[in-house]
UniProtKB/TrEMBL annotation:
This is Tetracycline 7-halogenase. Gene3D superfamilies: FAD/NAD(P)-binding domain. The gene is ctcP. Residues 7-311 form the FAD-binding domain. It comes from Novipirellula caenicola. SUPFAM superfamilies: FAD/NAD(P)-binding domain (SSF51905). InterPro entries: FAD-bd (IPR002938), FAD/NAD-bd_sf (IPR036188), Flavin-dep_Halogenase_NPB (IPR050816).
Length: 414
């Protein structure tokens, strides 16, 4: 039975919301977690970075992940617009610990596991429950939310803290006009699922593969899932992918014809289900927390799908936000500074992945060429693909990467 008042209300039961709710509820604070969709529910974003190990360990889920039957992911590989394959970036060649292996997950199963774990740790969890509004007092401090429950009843819920994990809907940021879209990363993703796509043998069989098309105007992801199914998606600029072109299904196949690295892998594969489409606009929020509220996951910001950082970032933000809420109640301090105090250091680390995304979308950049020119950076690039963005500076890596890109630009202009 849903109560009329909670210490904390978490909106959105993706990885960020579930991890935040679990941490807060485990501390003994009354916690409501709501999700508008029924569980289990479909979601894209199946590839995990290895650093997801640590928030999953914090939630007590490592053993369940091992038992769930998800495809193990041990590497990332890149394929050029000519179809040339880079040497795979094997995580365990850089770090032999168990945490260097990760998973490719069916999000319906993975998110349900997180939702159930939040409930086990004490959160009051309700799906098919929609947020209608967030309520502020005259001082712009959170006092509660208004929701519509699964039976269609509208009701006010009082609370001291709201954790907004509403994904790209980013409810509070949109309400307060805090979102800034990156005009250089306005992308569209068109994807579907295939049975019997060709995978590599051995440890690279579960690799996420990033494949450029001939013009480098788009790229494909290749994410092997369990049960012989592979997620195949195409990403490109909105103007290129949509304006003046045919239906998304035809665009998908046109781009596939332009992807020499992917075509052979799908020759004998069978597509399953419909073609799906999503706009993937990169954005950041100008304010990440306020008195009684904090943003996590895509509600705080979205970079790009290319390096599969979304789930890890959401889980990590959820844990950090949950810890900040728990500490705030102990200190009787639910200010913006307390609830969002973790965001600055988090975003300092995220900047390195943003730089790697920017390099990827520079047409002259080639990861294979860069590794030949600067083999000493292979370990640091692997660190970034693992998700280790908070440990040390990557300044020299990106100085050398800029040099490589400028050299390539000069050569192409000759």
């Amino acid at each position: 039975m849903m109560k009329s008042s909670y210490d904390c209300v978490v909106i959105g039961a993706g990885p960020g919301g579930c991890s935040a709710a679990a941490i807060v509820a485990q501390s003994g604070l009354s916690t409501l977690l709501i999700e508008r969709e029924p569980f289990p529910r479909f979601h894209v974003g199946e590839s995990l970075m290895p650093e997801t190990y640590w928030p999953l360990q914090r939630l007590g889920l490592i053993d369940r992940m091992k038992e769930a039957g998800f495809q193990v992911k041990k590497s990332v590989q890149f394929v050029s617009h000519h179809g040339n394959e880079s040497a795979p970036f094997f995580f365990r060649q850089h770090d032999m610990r168990e945490c260097s292996d990760t998973w490719q997950v069916e999000r319906s199963e993975f998110d349900k596991m997180l939702f159930d774990r939040a409930e086990e740790l004490g959160a009051d969890c309700h799906d098919q429950t929609r947020l209608l509004d967030v309520r502020f007092d005259d001082m712009q401090k959170i006092v509660g939310v208004r929701i519509r429950d699964r039976d269609g009843n509208e009701r006010d819920i009082d609370c001291s803290v709201v954790i907004d994990a509403t994904g790209q809907q980013s409810f509070i940021a949109n309400k307060l006009k805090l979102k800034e879209v990156n005009p250089d990363l306005r992308k569209v993703a068109i994807w579907s699922y295939y049975r019997d796509a060709v995978r590599d043998e051995g440890d690279n069989g579960g690799a996420t593969i990033i494949l450029n098309t001939e013009s480098k105007e788009s790229w494909f992801w290749f994410i092997p899932l369990s049960r012989g199914i592979t997620s195949i998606g195409c990403v490109g600029d909105t103007d290129y992918m949509i304006k003046g072109r045919a239906k998304p299904e035809q665009v998908f196949y046109e781009e596939l014809e332009r992807c020499p690295g992917l075509k052979p892998r799908l020759e004998n594969a069978t597509r399953l289900g419909d073609i799906r489409v999503a706009k993937e606009f990169s954005y950041m929020t100008t304010q990440h927390a306020g008195d009684g509220w904090v943003l996590v996951g895509d509600a705080l910001g979205f970079i790009d799908p290319v390096y599969s950082s979304g789930v890890y970032f959401a889980l990590e933000m959820g844990v950090r936000a949950g810890d900040a809420v728990v500490e705030g109640f102990k200190k009787n301090d639910l200010s913006a500074a307390q609830l969002g105090g973790w965001t600055e250091s988090f975003l300092e680390g995220v900047q390195w992945l943003r730089k790697l995304v920017a390099a990827f979308y520079t047409k002259e950049f080639s990861i294979g060429r860069f590794m030949k020119e600067y083999p000493e950076h292979r370990g640091r690039v692997t660190d970034l693909l693992i998700g280790r963005i908070f440990d040390e500076s990557a300044e020299q890596l990106f100085k050398d990467m800029d040099t490589s890109i400028e050299k390539a630009k000069m050569e192409s202009a000759m």
